[in-house]
UniProtKB/TrEMBL annotation:
Record-linked CDD domains: MopB_DmsA-EC (cd02770)
EC category: oxidoreductase
Pfam families associated with the record: Molybdop_Fe4S4 (PF04879), Molybdopterin (PF00384)
Signal peptide residues on this chain, from the entry's feature table: none
EC code(s) of this entry: 1.7.2.3
One Gene Ontology CC term in the entry: outer membrane-bounded periplasmic space
Annotated 4Fe-4S Mo/W bis-MGD-type domain residues: 32-93
Organism: Clostridium pasteurianum DSM 525 = ATCC 6013
GO BP terms, alphabetized: anaerobic respiration
Name used for this protein in its record: Anaerobic dimethyl sulfoxide reductase, A subunit, DmsA/YnfE family
Amino acid sequence: MENSKFIKKLFEEDGFHSYIPNSKDEINENHERIVRTSGSHNCGGRCVIKAHVKNERIVRISTEDDIKDTRENPQLRGCLRCRSYRNRMYNHDRLKYPMKRIGKRGEGKFKRISWEEAIDTIAENTKRSMKEYGPDSIYLQYATGNAGRLAERNWMKRLIGMYGGYLDYYGSYSTACTQIATPYTFGTIYTGSSRDTWQNSKLIILLGFNPAETIHGTNTAYYLKLAKEAGAKIISIDPIYSNTAIGLADKWIPIRPTTDSALLDAMAYVIITENLQDQDFLDKYCLGFDEEHMPSGIPKGNSYKSYILGEGEDKIPKTPAWAEAITGILRETIIELAREYAVNRPAALIEGFGPQRHAYGEQYTRSGTVLAAITGNIGINGGWASGTGYPVRQEFVASIPYYNPNKSQISVYSWPDAIIRGKGMGADLSVKGVKRLSSNIKLMFNLGGNTLVNQHSDSNGTAKLLEDESLVEFIVVSDHFLTPSAKFADILLPADNMMEREDIVTPWGIGDYVIYMNKAVDTIFECHNGYDWIRDLADKLGLKDEFTEGKSIEQWMEYLIGETAKRNNDFPSINEFKEKSIYRWNYDKCSIAFEDQIEDFENNPFPTPSGKIEIFSKRLWGMNNPFEIPAVPKYISAWEGPEDPIKTIYPLQCIGHHYKRRVHSTFDNTSWMEEAGKQEI
């Protein structure tokens, strides 16, 4: 098929017939301009994307190919998802106009309205909710559809903070358990070294870690490939025979979901009973491994070693045979794995986020950190401290300034509780910052996210809550499509997408760069940039001057770049940054988490109460709930897990797999990605 017909076919498939190129100029290569930008959705990567534009329409998307690709500085190449973005952007189902609900909430029936009416309605309800119920009644929902510095939710936080405040959340849908658990061992969630250290690893164990599909930082799978080429053995432990297991691992070990900490306990049993632990490391840097190194005042039998050997309260040795019955992994495999990890130093045990997304996922997290400690794989090149794994090397990139005068916070997962019984909720139901909430949630802003229904648990129960207009009285949604969450909007707004705006994005999780997202094309139909409509809302609330500080969106970009440059001496000017679209920090050496502590412990203690790696946590002990919140990491059988008696009725266990063709629900309606990677059970 000739080029012009092929381009026309692709536009027809996208459903935007009004945007089909017709003039001869549009198929002339000399009239194509290339715009450098990036992906700002929650895909696990932040890559360099190049939009090829003709006649103000994107006709092709490519990626970084104009710098030398080296081991030290690999190109930031986009995957199929970003390369298919045109199919998503020009999808005929895209929201085009502001709308208001005309049917029952949740039915998905809407009527087109003007932006003026939409803003007036939002302003009236915001004023009413603040006046009648106070700031605890207004909730800005967790959302990851736009990760840019200028994302709508950031502007809304700024505005509502100025208007009196809002009910905030803490934690994350992605890393709720590990963010809570890891600091009890290390005092921080920043436990990750730079990925080039893997080339010094002799063994890498990937525990529920699948970067070939989830990306987990652009080029993470590539760094594993380099480690393998350097001689590292890679073992993937995962219920799924993932692309990572297929393409990178020397060995795949399947495991029953929710049982990872039982495996880690049994590995510790082998290491301890065969005297393979690094006792010198444990004696110097750790608290609570054995009875000789416990905090004062703790009864005998509560050390980690006592638990593992069955000398604690449960009297059960955590043998490979014990773990085999739970995990489904042969005891011989467990023994071999434990020996390999203990003997082949430096070794990296990398914990993925998936295994901590269940009941008692905190135990999995802490079990991994302790296994790294007893083998002495912390603070050394090629080792890995495990836990959350956020990189210890963090570059500063400025954000939009906002302040929330309301101190109330709830767990990111407990907003349905705050809808039903928010008034009076306290610490027993996840509240922080205040003793009790003063109101139920009455108004919700869901901007660029689908966690109202689609990515929250018990979606049917949540839908029932949202349908009841006597509970949440007003819901605002801004999105690209009529998602399951968007169906519950009272006012539904069409958002611009990442090709239609200027923004700045930082790496997903790990990486030493920042990208300027140049605007490739104008917005279509009546889609608006978040700053534009929230500025208009600020005007209705009497806060326009305070909110905008007299700045246009371009001037806010200049502000962010200027603030970033104050802490990065050679940071480029806005014009240079726009042109190159990327700034890379260059380092002469790798970054090793806790290297300072291990090399000079006396002057650099760990940021824990004891100053040591806390295998036993006195803070957890003080919670006085040893069966669900033990002071040392323990395997606790998850409800609806493989040991739950309910399996006699429901013998199959279902887990959610982060498949490569989509990002949560983003790209799920993209026909090209469906064709490239059909997801099946």
